[in-house]
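Regression test case RT-17, inverse folding.

Input:
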């Protein structure tokens, strides 16, 4: 069974999404990328992965009509990337061996953000 390329959470929220996600990004050392069409992008190294060649954790936040969509992924720079010149994307759910440590560390960061919105954690 193929692993999802991103982990997605959708929920109702009436507050300012940027205020919550920006504060989270500052607390965890993520950088905010350019916003395009209302999509907030964040990029960061999850704790303990700076010394590896894994890439990092990518998060997008979109708010439309009272609904928020958060997307989480780890972006890897592995053997296949050397030949295709494209990084591989993986969702952060648990299960399987491939990139398990990085996915677990990305879940910690994602669950911190989800908790700020009062949402259940990614398992």
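Golden output:
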């Amino acid at each position: 069974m193929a692993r999802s390329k991103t982990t997605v959470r959708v929920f109702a929220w009436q507050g300012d999404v940027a205020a919550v996600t920006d504060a989270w990004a500052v607390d965890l050392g993520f950088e905010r990328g350019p916003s395009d069409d209302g999509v907030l992008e964040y990029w960061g190294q999850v704790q303990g992965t700076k010394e590896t060649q894994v890439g990092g954790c990518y998060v997008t936040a979109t708010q439309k009509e009272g609904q928020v969509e958060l997307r989480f992924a780890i972006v890897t720079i592995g053997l296949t990337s050397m030949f295709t010149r494209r990084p591989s994307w993986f969702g952060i759910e648990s299960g399987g061996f491939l990139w398990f440590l990085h996915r677990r560390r990305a879940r910690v960061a994602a669950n911190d953000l989800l908790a700020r919105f009062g949402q259940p954690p990614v398992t």
